[in-house]
Amino acid sequence: AARQAGMRRAVGAENQPLAPPLNCIKPEESPPMSDQILEDARELLQKEILALQETTDALDESFVQAVRLIQNAKGKVVVSGVGKSGLIGQKIAATMSSMGTVAVFLHPTDALHGDLGMVNEGDVIIAISHSGTSDEILAIIAPLRRIGAKIIAMVGNVNSELALAADGILRLVVHEEADHLNLAPTASALATLALGDAVAGCLSKLRNFKHEDFAKYHPAGAIGRRLLLTVRDLMHGGDELPIVLPDATVDEVLTVLTDKRLGGVNVVTNRETMQLAGVITDGDLKRALKQREKFFSLCAADMMTKNPTVVCEEDMASHALELMENRPFQILVLPVLSKPGAVVGLLRLHDLLKMT
Fold first, then answer.
1. pLDDT, the chain, mean
2. Model confidence at 296: pLDDT above 50
3. What does the pLDDT read at residue 40?
4. For 307, what's the count of Cα atoms within 13 Å in the CB-facing half-sphere?
5. What are phi and psi of 169, to 5 degrees?
């Protein structure tokens, strides 16, 4: 009987609905309205904007001294931080390296276990700690001093232990984090990143870092293509080069335009020296067509644009793009000259746009 009663209880239990796991229980309150979510997002972003503005307003001679300390250093920059400051520090080091200041990231814990070997006398350390009291950062100060490195504290508290031990200060001004708990490194992380970018940018300008220098460190991707390509890389030359002589007939010009399909023809004084006399574009042909009665009696010299804008084959492609776009009316084709001045190619705006 007892066995049967137990079986009945077990069967009854099987027929009861299972209780949902605690983490699946939905709260009774309704989810926030869309307007509230947007309001919360705007409030958070405004707090971050305020932190950026206050950090900007606090820039003073101490910032200049810190930048000069790095500029005049004999060694590299070593950026260090823990937690979110460490993640931001990695980005700051990467930005500096790509903009002409040799920089590496060093985690303070790893530093205490052998990685201090990457630090040399003459290096400058940027130690990031918003509070200025991070134990891991403070622990490496004395060893860094023994090596002979200079220390710049990126801190929010200029009276902190880290700031007082440093040779220079980069000051963060963040009165409130952006999250609703005022706890997560949000506004402070953004301000730290921006201040690091400011240091990298100022150093890059002081070192006269140019487009060509930037291109050396960015050989891949859209940036690399835009900065490394020259006019020679994109122009149409050799058998593709459309040329006619000044006395070429309309029929000859149209034949070359049609065969080469580049939207323009270089007019050269003769085929030996290849000196440029002018250029004929589709637009020039359309204007010539207005002379209906005389059109077929015209020659290339009658239709061409004399003294056109030109580029050298060794010019950067980005320079050619600026020439073609920065004017009231876009130029669609450019004659390309060699250094001696001979025509060697034709460059289309279409070819330049493909590199961006």
1. 88
2. yes
3. 95
4. 0
5. -130, 135
SS (H, E, C) the chain: CHHHHHHHHHHHHHCCCCCCCHHHCCCCCCCCCHHHHHHHHHHHHHHHHHHHHHHHHCCCHHHHHHHHHHHCCCCCEEEECCHHHHHHHHHHHHHHHHCCCCEEECCHHHHCCCHHHHCCCCCEEEEECCCCCCHHHHHCHHHHHHHCCEEEEEECCCCCHHHHHCCEEEECCCCCCCCCCCCCCCHHHHHHHHHHHHHHHHHHHHCCCCHHHHHHCCCCHHHHHHHHCEHHHHCECHHHCCEECCCCEHHHHHHHHHHHCCCEEEEECCCCCCEEEEEEEHHHHHHHCCCCCCHHHCEHHHHCEECCCCEECCCEHHHHHHHHHCCCCCCCEEEEECCCCEEEEEEEHHHHHCCC
Burial grade of 209 (CB within 10 A; 0-12, 13-18, 19 or more): middle
- State residue 220's pLDDT score: 63
User: Is 231:317 a contact under the CB 8 Å cutoff?
Assistant: yes
Mean pLDDT of the region 164-169: 97
Provide the token pair at 303: 């239709």
19 has pLDDT over 80? no
pLDDT at 222 over 50: yes
- 134, 43, 57, 172 alpha-carbon torsion, rounded to 10°: 10
Q: What is the pTM of this model?
A: 0.67
Q: How far is CA 122 from CA 105, 147, 149, in A?
A: 16, 9, 5
Q: Which residue has the higher pLDDT, 294 or 153?
A: 153
Distance of alpha carbon 355 from alpha carbon 318, whole angstroms = 9
Neighbours of 269 (CB within 10 A): 14
50/57 Cα distance (integer angstroms): 10
CA 211 to chain centre: 12
